TrEMBL record, chain A:
Keywords: Endoplasmic reticulum, Glycosyltransferase, Membrane, Transferase, Transmembrane, Transmembrane helix. It is an enzyme of class 2 (transferase). The keyword Acyltransferase does not apply. It comes from the Eukaryota. Belongs to the ALG6/ALG8 glucosyltransferase family. It holds the Pfam family Alg6_Alg8. This is Alpha-1,3-glucosyltransferase. The lineage of its organism: Eukaryota, Viridiplantae, Chlorophyta, core chlorophytes, Trebouxiophyceae. The chain crosses the membrane at residues 53-73, 94-120, 126-152, 164-187. Pathway: Protein modification; protein glycosylation. Signal peptide: none annotated. InterPro entries: Glyco_trans_ALG6/ALG8. Coiled coil: none annotated.
TrEMBL record, chain B:
It comes from Coccomyxa viridis. It comes from the Eukaryota. This is Alpha-1,3-glucosyltransferase. Belongs to the ALG6/ALG8 glucosyltransferase family. Keywords: Endoplasmic reticulum, Glycosyltransferase, Membrane, Transferase, Transmembrane, Transmembrane helix.
Length: 418, 508
């Protein structure tokens, strides 16, 4: 265990928090039975039919977490809304692409998030906090939701008589989870090493494939300006930036100032202020899923070294509420279509080309049809309730104007780089 | 708003957005199956059906028409010689020309035997999907308009069922064949005939037969239906004229398709010789038909000569299809045509000479066109058909795809059982006695379904648990065929009964 975060034989070092490492340790037991060679540490990637099948099946089985969370989150909904919501999450094209073609365990992680959201909607805040702490220790990307969770818990749970006691309870539970997860490594004195693995700031502002966020626009501006500068023959700091090279690498902007991790984090926090203020004023469990989606979207738009896959953190919670109101449905439709479209470059092999496009297309058409059916009913029953739709709307309003172009540009740039 | 404009575009025709969604889903799963292995992948020296199709492309693109079906220096007929009618050969030529442009090595004469590359596999796979798109989908849309006129929802379900039935998916996109072309042409023919366009229907059907001779399974149905329609004409002269018109259409189509071979009689004879498989045995491998299943008890081939067997097959086939055929001649209807097509294909599958396990696709197509009106047939036959082909699919390495598609089909059709019961219960308040009887039937049927699914799972599990005893090495294959044979026979009888009973009801 002391080698988990030090080992670097292979290019793919462990960069998830400790609880996820434990999860992988559990998976190693059946894997050892099936094909022991899977577990040898080597520099080159290992691949055998049994190993691939096992890994794929493990994703399929951990999807049970997602489905059970979905069941819990939707069991109180009315008939058609329940059906539509369940379909939209369970058959989510983005999740299918990222988990089952590209290979990740987002079903498991988002499943835990759904469990947590469902518990909040049912008013069981402590359990929700516990699960969220667990989630944070499995993938730290979800730290984007931490401000939202803390404000919500502070205002919704820690109030009334015994507020201080309640605060202590939640605090100690969360602290215990963290202690359990990071404690052993702290005792071994590996915290700096671990944190360096978890937060690889040296990797740069943008991921190898640019995620379609504001920084992509920024980088694109930089490209244009550097070309112009060169064209005009103005002597300038010359570092031909190559940010789409495919492999993770450090990069600098040539004309515009570099954005550090701190600045990006500050931008994310600043963008969340309106959301946090409104949650502070009115912590409503019914709106929590939308808030989570919005917080996820904010961090996606402004975060440091964001992966394109992170958009799922926003799409999946929003899917819970999409069938609830027309406005939400429209935002979801827009977000999921564009978001899934931006995932397409992730699968670059020719064989799956038609498959991935059909997946995104079929999913978008299906949500279109289903949401239209669900919303007529929703409006008739007077379920227009989400104050935060407006909030989402404003945030997306900016994105709406920009996003398609960014995605297109990203796509073109990626193609060129290949 | 983008989403409304998208929906408006999709609504432009009489089809609803749901129709397009059904098609999208159908193609989504085609694209997924494409990633699985094909028949004979990496298995020299003969490979499999994929190599056969590729070899035909190689032959047709490189040799003159007169040598396509003939044994020549360049064309060794014992290595996957062309044994489908000319339209198949033209299709091979067309796709071959395109693939030759993209990957010349895949079509090199003589040197490309067993050529397998990721690129050529993708091109071949995509050619099957394109065939689906330009032949099968338009035909199914036409069928949706003609046969499901009453309800758009039923039509969409029919479409989804026809596109998603696992048997066709696995054979065309997994195993690798172009069945969807001839099946699509036949479906188009059925739609044309049923909507009164007899000449167009006849032409389409002749094309279907000229793509794969197996479409002949439907010939008695079309003959009976069209004859019945002609006989409905008022006077003798108009009857004769109608028949003559159709005869002319059929002859003209055949002449056009066979034109390149008619210049030289020996060429035409070569083709005929290749596509008539009378020299082969009574059945191939393990097929769930009458002859193969009963051969375990009765050694047909030692009792009768080959000639006698051919006659015996022909007689029993016609006899098995006769009741609905007679019915159709006397009173031709649109849905009657479908029942007739299915019944006659069932009869051919069960009793005719030299049947492949893949021929189960032929009765399956018209059954799926019957749509939600025949819930038992449309739900039960596709998995049974798949099950009967399992030994073949397993050989192709398609077990994983088979399991996934069977589970998917189960998930697609299972919940609807509950919905139907609710409908029945509301009906029950109206018509008490009749509903009770049908309720009893239903529970019996459900029971049968559970038993049969249980048995099927058991038969799959058996070879994993036990080893076949030495004196009966093929016992498990025999189990597969017997189980499927009983089901297919039962479903065929049930369909005939439905066809006859429903029409009597209408007649009264």
């Amino acid at each position: 265990m002391s080698h988990w975060y030090v080992e670097e034989t292979s290019e793919w070092t462990l960069d998830y928090p400790p609880l996820f490492a434990w999860f992988q340790r559990l998976l190693a037991y059946p894997a050892a039975l099936l094909d022991p060679a899977t577990l040898y540490i080597s520099k080159l990637p290992y691949k055998s039919p049994e190993c691939v099948l096992f890994q794929r099946l493990s994703v399929v089985f951990t999807d049970a977490v997602l489905l059970s969370g979905l069941w819990l989150a939707t069991r109180r909904r009315c008939g058609s809304q329940k059906k539509v919501t369940r379909y939209m999450v369970a058959a989510n094209a983005g999740l299918l692409i990222v988990d089952h073609i590209h290979f990740q365990y987002n079903g498991l992680l988002l499943g835990i998030l759904l469990w947590s959201i469902a518990l909040i909607q049912e008013g069981r805040d402590v359990a929700a906090a516990f699960l969220f702490a667990l989630l944070l220790n499995m993938k730290h990307l979800f730290a984007a939701l931490a401000p939202l969770y803390s404000v919500y818990l502070l205002r919704h749970y820690c109030r009334g008589p015994g507020a201080l006691y309640k605060f202590a309870t939640v605090g100690s539970i969360v602290a215990a989870v963290f202690a359990l997860s990071f404690g052993p490594f702290a005792l071994m004195g590996q915290m700096p090493q671990l944190l360096q693995r978890l937060f690889p700031f040296h990797r740069g502002l943008l991921h190898a494939y640019w995620a379609p966020n504001l920084w992509a626009l920024y980088a694109f501006m930089d490209k244009i300006m550097s070309t112009m500068v060169q064209y005009l023959g103005i002597p300038f700091r010359s570092s031909p930036a190559s940010m789409t090279g495919g492999l993770v690498q450090v990069s600098h902007f040539s004309v515009l100032p570099d954005i550090g991790a701190g600045a990006a984090a500050a931008a994310v926090l600043a963008s969340m202020i309106p959301l946090l203020v409104s949650v502070w004023r009115r912590p409503d469990p019914a709106c929590f899923a939308c808030c989570a989606a919005l917080a996820g979207l904010n961090s996606f738009m402004l975060g440091y070294h964001v992966h394109e896959k992170a958009i799922l953190m926003s799409i999946v919670p929003l899917a819970l509420e999409a069938a609830g109101s027309l406005r939400c449905a429209r935002i979801f439709q827009r977000l999921s279509t564009i978001g899934h479209y931006s995932l397409l470059p992730l699968i670059y092999t020719q064989d799956e080309c038609i498959l991935k496009m059909l997946m995104v297309l079929a999913y978008s058409v299906a949500t279109c049809i289903l949401l239209e059916q669900a919303c007529t009913e929703g409006i008739l029953e007077g379920q227009e309730k989400n104050v935060f739709d407006l909030c989402c709307g404003v945030s997306l309003g900016v994105g709406r104007a920009l996003d398609p172009d960014i995605v297109l540009l990203t796509y073109l740039l990626c193609e060129k780089a290949q | 708003m983008a989403r409304t404009s998208v929906l408006r575009f999709l609504r432009a025709g009489t089809e609803s957005p749901t129709t397009w969604l059904a098609i999208l889903i159908g193609f989504l799963f085609r694209a997924a199956i494409c990633l699985h292995p094909y028949s004979g992948a990496g298995k020299p020296p003969m490979y499999g059906d994929y190599e056969a199709q590729r070899h035909w492309m190689e032959i047709t693109t490189n040799l003159p028409v007169s040598e396509w079906y003939a044994e020549t220096k360049q064309n060794n007929l014992s290595y996957w010689g062309l044994d489908y009618p000319p339209l198949s050969a033209y299709q091979s030529w067309l796709y071959g020309k395109v693939i030759e442009r993209l990957d010349p090595d895949a079509m090199a004469l003589g040197e490309s035997h067993g050529y397998e590359s990721a690129d050529s596999k993708r091109y071949m796979r995509q050619s099957v999907m394109i065939s689906d798109l330009i032949v099968l989908v338009p035909a199914l849309l036409a069928c949706r308009r003609v046969f499901c006129r009453g309800s758009a929802e039923k039509g969409d379900l029919m479409l989804l069922g026809s596109l998603m039935q696992p048997a066709l998916l696995l054979i065309d996109h997994g195993h690798f064949q172009y069945n969807s072309i001839s099946l699509g042409l036949a479906a188009g023919a059925a739609a044309a005939v049923a909507s009164g366009k007899d000449v167009l229907g006849s032409i389409l059907f002749c094309l279907a037969m000229n793509h794969k001779q197996m479409a002949m399974f439907y010939a008695p149905a079309f003959f009976a239906h069209l004859l019945g329609r002609c006989l409905q004409k008022p006077s003798l002269s108009s009857k004769m004229a109608a028949i003559a018109r159709l005869g002319l259409a059929v002859t003209a189509t055949f002449v056009v398709v066979w034109a390149p071979f008619l210049a030289n009689p020996s060429d035409a004879l070569h083709v005929l010789h290749r596509i008539m498989p009378l020299k082969r045995g009574l059945y191939e491998d393990y097929v769930a038909n009458f002859w193969c299943t009963t051969s375990m008890l009765v050694k047909w081939r030692s009792i009768f000569s080959q000639q006698a067997l051919v006659w015996l097959c022909m007689g029993s086939t016609l006899l098995a299809a006769m009741p609905v055929l007679v019915q159709e001649v006397r009173r031709p209807t649109a849905r009657g045509l479908l029942v007739c097509m299915a019944s006659s294909a069932f009869a051919f599958y069960l009793f005719s000479y030299q049947v492949h396990e893949k021929s189960i696709l032929l009765p399956l197509m018209p059954v799926m066109l019957l749509g939600p009106d025949q819930p038992i047939m449309t739900r039960w036959l596709p998995p049974v058909a798949c099950f009967s082909m399992y030994p073949l699919l397993k050989k192709d390495g398609l077990t994983l795809a088979y399991i996934a598609l069977m589970l998917l089909w189960g998930a697609m059709t299972w919940p609807a059982v509950g919905e139907e019961r609710k409908e029945r219960q509301t009906e029950a308040s109206r018509d008490h006695v009749e509903a009770q009887v049908s309720e009893r039937w239903r529970s019996l049927l459900l029971m049968g379904l559970y038993v049969s699914v249980g048995l099927a799972v058991g038969i799959h599990a058996a070879p994993l648990i036990w080893k076949a005893p030495k004196q009966y090495p093929y016992i498990f294959d025999a189990l597969f065929t017997s189980f499927s044979f009983l089901h297919i026979l039962g479903l065929a009888v049930y369909l005939q009964y439905q066809g006859l009973a429903n029409k009597q009801l209408k007649g009264d």
